[in-house]
Amino acid sequence: MLLTHRVDRAVLRGALFSLCALLWPAPARGQGQTKTPPSARVEVSADQAAAAEALFQEARALVEKKEYAAACPKFAESQRLDPGIGTLMNLGDCYEKNGKMASAWATYREAIAEANRTDQRQREKDAAVLAARVEARLSRVTLRVPAANLRPGLKLSRDGQLVDPAQYGLSIPIDAGEHELRAEAPGHAPWSSRFGLAEGAKQELLVPALERLPEPAVAPPPGPQRTIGFVVAGAGIATVAAGGVLGLVAMSQRSEAQQLGCDDVACSTLEAKDKNDSALGLANVSTVLFIAGGVTTAAGVVLVATAPKRGPSAPPPVGGAPPPSAAASALWLGAARRGTGLSLQGRF
After folding, report:
1. Position with higher pLDDT, 113 vs 41
2. Which of 45, 68, 108, 134 has the most CB atoms less than 10 A away?
3. Confidence of residue 344 (pLDDT cuts 50, 70, 90)
4. Mean pLDDT along residues 254-263
5. pLDDT tens, 81-102?
């Protein structure tokens, strides 16, 4: 049965724990918190104690309704806020009734240690009896990780909780039910497996060697075509700029020739004719530079746009011939003076 208020622990201790030996009833929180030596007590604020008591009472009400899955977390939170052996015993009893034998066993073992630490011998004996009773019903799992399957940085987790390597190869108590084991290591594909355990069952799980992931592809450095394209485009832009400068000079000289006596048909003086001829020559050169610069710039843009950006570079053809990208980038200007003109030759 469950007690509803705090009572004198000294009066009830003998009767209560004699009854526990035959049938364990969940004691009230007040009854469970026997006096602890001052040096061993944990300082708890009034707010924490009040919250712990409220949680404890709510958990007891849920246990009365046999709603153990909802009651156990409240007992656990009450214990966290205001630790006490009585709450631990109630929590262990709740876990046991809910079929969580490993959790119940671990909680009873914690109660044994706390009772021993605080010199509560009867409590220690009672908790030991309960722990022994639960231990016979424990489910256990053994994780086998052969040395050949170990990987640098290997991490195992069970139900999201990291498994310490010290547990490898040991028969570890766990609650019955469905579980998930997961293994992962840097540079390897993760592995996971789901398994179920009945109450009292024992199972061994072999962790396989994780498969190494392929190395990520590294993009090669840009090929020469892209670099040549930028150079060619830059040269084309510079050529267009030079053509523009010469065009301005030609316009200036043409204006001077007109002032000296040249019109659209003839020039009245030799000086005017020379100035006019020079202006016409510069205008022709400017036109050629504009055309050459435009073609060169366009060629550079094409080279940049068609340059391969990813993937392995193609091997050079047999015989030492340049690769297609190099051949496509062959471009030159040839200039020959014919009076005041320039000729442009190009190959793409």
Report:
1. 113
2. 108
3. very low
4. 78
5. 999 999 999 999 999 999 999 9
Rounded Cα–Cα distance for residues 75 and 58 (Å): 9
The average pLDDT across 97-121 equals: 96
Torsion of CA 52, 55, 61, 62, to 10 degrees: -130
How many Å from the N-terminal Cα to the C-terminal Cα in the chain? Answer: 99
Measured between alpha carbons, how far is 97 from 130 in angstroms, rounded to an integer? 12
Residue 29's pLDDT is what?
A: 56
Ramachandran angles phi, psi of 207, nearest 5°: -85, 120
Q: How would you list the strands of the sheet with 191-197, edge to edge?
A: 161-163, 155-158, 177-184, 191-197
Task: Report d(CA 279, CA 260) in Å as an integer.
Answer: 13
Whole-prediction pTM value? 0.54
| pLDDT at 277 > cutoff 70 | yes
